[in-house]
Queue: 2 jobs
Job 1
Amino acid sequence: MSSSRDSLVDALSMKEGNGEHSYDTNSHYQRSVFSEIEHVVVESIIEMLMNLDYPEYIKVTDLGCSSGRNTLFAMSEIVNTIIQSYHQKGRPNAPEIECCLNDLPHNDFNTTFKLVPSFLEKLKMEVKGKCFVSGVPNSFYSRLFPSMSLHLAHSSFSLHWLSRVPDGLENNNTSIHINDTSPPDVYKSYLNQFKNDFSLFLRMRSEEIVPNGQMVLTFVGRKVSDPLSKNCFQVWSLLSDCILDLVSEGIIKESGMHSFSMPFYNPNEEEVREVVINEGSFKINKIETHDHIVPYKIEKDEEELSLELMEAGKERATGIRCITEPLLVAHFGETVIDQVFDKYAQYMAKYLSVSSRRPNMTLNICFSLTRKNKDSLFFYVCQPDMISKLWNSFIVF
């Protein structure tokens, strides 16, 4: 077990394999979100190809790909769109496409790689495309690719994971994240960490993506401007309650609870927009938001209601378990995991029983971005007196 907040992120990964609690088995929602924003990806690809005059070779990446079917579902749609666009333009030869799957080194790449042969075979049969798949195990908060080598970067449900647990959380030791009782400086610490991380992410990609290349980024976000609203971080509040229960029962040490915080921040639209504008390497093409819909609004008698709510609570608990278990195991050990999520299912069932009375505070935010051409930015970054001198030198010449 680790008590270091910096080393905690080293364990960040989704639950491996394809078993009952794995990410592959429990990521239907993430897949449905890609279906919602797929048209944004298609539009970005078409614009990118037109701006780059349909190159013979295209390199794309899925940043934070995780493991299993979802990443190949997204990559399949991207590759199919590229090849179909060439056919529709009457281009006789489809491009060679390099697909780079990126995630942290502890990611379960093997589960995904086992699916690659069938992915490539299907691609050959359906669109006659030539595709090369590789893994890139490293943090997307660092450089991943050679300069000016990427044409399209896609990331879905990844950029809300931070590079580290923020500093300044000492007064928040009875919660694993932000909640409505957190001091305001806790929110500021998380926000500053997100801004620093996302700005770094954009700077790294600006060095790797060709001018007029594209990025499509989808975040778990939030609607309200009040950062300490009770429902903004409800998932983590419930998980905090579960861990606090186990502390009170003597199963988890109080010091373990105090030293654990989730390296996660779900921004609102304005916070994302501000970082993009301030960093300056990318132009915003489109922003779309999609409400997170809770599919549990039940009208039954009390006994049936209780049973169905418990099933819904278990389903939600499994969905959270598949994205948090490796972090929790790294810090608290494996023996407490079942107890944590048994409690989580009960708390979630209770929450869902009254959630229809509460406003929906969660949404997904999709940003479509174009890498600016630095040459075209030259005159914008020059000082006015420099532009005047340059203009006079042109006249003299």
Job 2
Amino acid sequence: MANGTTSGTTDAPSSPSNSTVTSTTQPSFIESLIDKIPLPRWALIAIVIAVGLVLLLLLICIIKCCCCRKKRKKKKKAVDMTSINGPSTTKRLVQPDLEDIECGNEEEEKRGRLQYSLEYDFRSQEMKVGVKQAADLKAMDSGGTSDPYVIVYLTSDIRKKYETKVYRKTLNPVFNESFIFHIPQGDVAENTLVMQVYDFNRFSKHDIIGEMRLPLGDVDLQHVMEQWHELTAASKIEQEHLGEICISLRYVPSTSKLTVVILEAKKLKRMDPNGLSDPYVKVQLILNKKKWKKKKTSVKKNTLSPYFNEAFIFDVPFHLIQNIDLVISVWDSDKVTKDDQIGKLFLGCRATGNQLRHWSDMLANARRPVAQWHNLQPVEDIDKTLGLKTRFKLPLPGS
């Protein structure tokens, strides 16, 4: 009996009833926190579900935003690549260039071939260009034929053009005509021979079938050459090379003196029948789009590369220097007829490119002369840009 009593007392702590009481008397932290909230269990479950849905929606939104950003980066990269390959990304995205659209068709389209000959006489400095024949020309008329003829010229003087006879209703005309160009040996390499094949139309504008361009710098003039050349699509009309001029500028703000030195010119356009010109230079100041002061150099006879080295000094107050346009024009002197303008350019704050850079360098380097070469531009383009008003005299000091 004693042994049974002792074993009962030692086994009592491990009884199942006692262990159950211990676990219920020490609740978990979460259960104790839930018990403190004055809401029923179903309300707490509903709140937890609502919060879970909100978090899920937020997660979906974040994922969508990340995807959109990646797409935008890809688009930006594509735009950057087109901007590298082309001059204007925005323009290309809105409307592609017509040249880009037609490029593929022009490469596949056959326009025919032209046979020509070339011979240069070093003694007389004359180039003989022969237009032999054409073959497989593109049909321009509704009847499946063309009325072809050829125009021949050099890029140094695009106004002087030769034309062959017109041959009716044929795609394989035989011309056998030759033309003589007077061109100094030193100017040959800088020229391009252009031959353009046209379709004659009696009552409408003549259509160009195709053209060939031959850079004379790539031609061996020691031998007479004769060969065929594939015609290509006509390029845009090139701007005629009018010549170059070197001028020096100097401005001293303290004395209001603007010094313009006409140094020299080169490669001027030929204006006289002998292939030369009698050039001189006019220097003009424009103030607020109105003509103000002008001076001119002496005339240099029979030359395309005159040397002047003539200086002109103008009084220009410092408060007016920003409103000044300096116009430089090169003229060909004629005793019988009216003098012709060869080319023109202007410098000032309204100018662009090298002209604006030269003017800015002059203002940034006061009292120091700054010299620079400039290409002459067509007179009509400069006059249109300047937009000159009617002439008048300005009542300014020193004028």
